[in-house]
Amino acid sequence: MKPVATSQAIERFKPENIVFVISFDRENNRPSGMIAAWSTICSSDPYMIAVALWKKGYTHKLIQDTKEFVVSVPDKSLEQAIEIFGKQHGDKVNKFKRSEVATSKAKFIKPPLLLEATINFECRLEKEVETGDHFLFIGKILASYVNEDKKVLLNLGKREGKRIFQEF
Hints:
This protein is an alpha+beta fold. It is built from four helices and twelve strands; from the N terminus they run H-E-E-E-E-E-H-E-H-H-E-E-E-E-E-E.
């Protein structure tokens, strides 16, 4: 074992889950969202999920404003949308229009569900924790949805600058 920079060790900490974090832009009356790799279930009574978002990001701002969000777990069919949601800026581009991703109305909150996602969680913001250059948003899960015939997409890392995914 040899010492390395923490960034090198974290880059090897794969596979990791990848999720869409969907928010709502009240000013422009449209959904927005991003891709996050840092998410986890953090309570089972009540069920809660945590996502780490860069504190200067647009999605971060929208969730602070509305106090609600959707976490959508993709499968391989959403790879093209992952690229758009992961590389475009929601304050400049309508990612839903550009990706043509199908949505469905959520039961309790304004941000939509991703119709083709493996799993969708409707969440109400319970707590924010500042963690350096990110905020950890902890959301109470209000409703959950599953597409039984879909798998979960994992990020295995990058090769030659391109993300490598595998379904589980």
